[in-house]
Amino acid sequence: xxxxxxxxxxxxxxxxxxxxxxxxxxxxxxxxxxxxxxxxxxxxxxxxxxxxxxxxxxxxxxxxxxxxxxxxxxxxxxxxxxxxxxxxxxxxxxxxxxxxxxxxxxxxxxxxxxxxxxxxxxxxxxxxxxxxxxxxxxxxxxxxxxxxxxxxxxxxxxxxxxxxxxxxxxxxxxxxxxxxxxxxxxxxxxxxxxxxxxxxxxxxxxxxxxxxxxxxxxxxxxxxxxxxxxxxxxxxxxxxxxxxxxxxxxxxxxxxxxxxxxxxxxxxxxxxxxxxxxxxxxxxxxxxxxxxxxxxxxxxxxxxxxxxxxxxxxxxxxxxxxxxxxxxxxxxxxxxxxxxxxxxxxxxxxxxxxxxxxxxxxxxxxxxxxxxxxxxxxxxxxxxxxxxxxxxxxxxxxxxxxxxxxxxxxxxxxxxxxxxxxxxxxxxxxxxx
Length: 433
Hints:
This protein is α/β, with parallel strands linked by helices. It has three domains: 3-72, Udp-n-acetylmuramoylalanyl-d-glutamate--2,6- Diaminopimelate Ligase, Chain: A, domain 1 (3-Layer(aba) Sandwich), CATH 3.40.1390; 88-299, 3-Layer(aba) Sandwich (UDP-N-acetylmuramoyl-L-alanine:D-glutamate ligase); 308-432, Alpha-Beta Complex (Protein-Tyrosine Phosphatase, Chain A). 35% of the residues lie in helices and 22% in strands. The chain has helices at 3-12, 43-48, 73-86, 101-112, 130-136, 156-164, 179-182, 185-192, 194-201, 213-222, 272-285, 290-299, 326-338, 358-370, 382-385, 399-408, and strands at 16-17, 28-30, 53-56, 67-69, 92-96, 118-120, 144-148, 168-171, 205-209, 227-231, 238-245, 248-255, 260-268, 308-311, 315-320, 344-349, 376-380, 394-396, 414-419. The strands form three sheets. It has a nine-stranded mixed β-sheet with strand order 6-7-5-8-9-10-11-12-13, sandwiched between helices. Strands 14-15-19-16-17-18 form a six-stranded mixed β-sheet, sandwiched between helices. A four-stranded parallel β-sheet has the order 1-2-3-4. The longest helix has 14 residues, at 73-86. 47% of the residues are buried.
């Protein structure tokens, strides 16, 4: 079956299912393989549950005319998404970076939605499976699409760009994330730079934080032509200034040569200033008014435990435990250190996927925490625990140990930052506050 033939089926059944537990009636089931399962074995189950067709790559399970046999199901899903993208004559904004991708994506969506029917990546569907699924969710009513692209090794952004074919793009930053897969910080820079490479080759528009020497040097190396700058510096197209951070951000921003516009946000963390300015920059580029832009920024409320403030009976929690790496740890520590709160506590969990650099990076984070004006410091996980007895702070080897310790020594009347890699599952601590 050609991709055009499959696409004609997709137009009649424009919903994709990959999980037999969540089959949508009339959808197309793609039998993707996992590390521990072969979804080909579930093809008949998917059809029985209401799927119109099942795309498989094992002839053994080709048991009805509703099965579509292909060479490789994942490749077919990606090819179908790329073909669908080619039929959509709308802006596609590709977004990647070491930190802040999801928050920036949500801010961009919030701003653009004030004027356009905007579709954006849901949740964390930002990998080689999630990006195709996201693109196939874009229908003919959508006016702008925002595609988040994650990666933990080189050539992954290149692949995702070939599928999403972004007309516009943004790298939030380049930091110490997924060092093991990328092969160090230079590998991260090269991997994220694959978005810039695609935009140059296809004459795309790039939005760049002018305050980042890494990003501006990456732009200069490639001699990109269509660049829109944002940042603190007043020579940027969009510039901004932080007015308050206690704990929510209030800022003012302006278009170069214009007057300032003030906006109150529901975000915490001075590091989110860059993400906000990126969304403002994109809103301005797509001709939204300052009032529309401010409505989008002020109306956005963070979720999914990314810089999310939760108030309990006796504490204010900064829940930022969706993920963590050395770069995001540093800015989160800096931010709580600057907050004008009476009593501040940090609870940090181990960072994953750092490879050989993991021990040194965990020591660096501990030292950063010790050098910052914070009243109480708690570290959790086997990597951090190596500093137990060396540093004057509280260390727990496991989250279970931390739960017991926190129950015995309740924290009250404090502002508490909880941050760690997703695998630490630090949300288990929240009920103790």
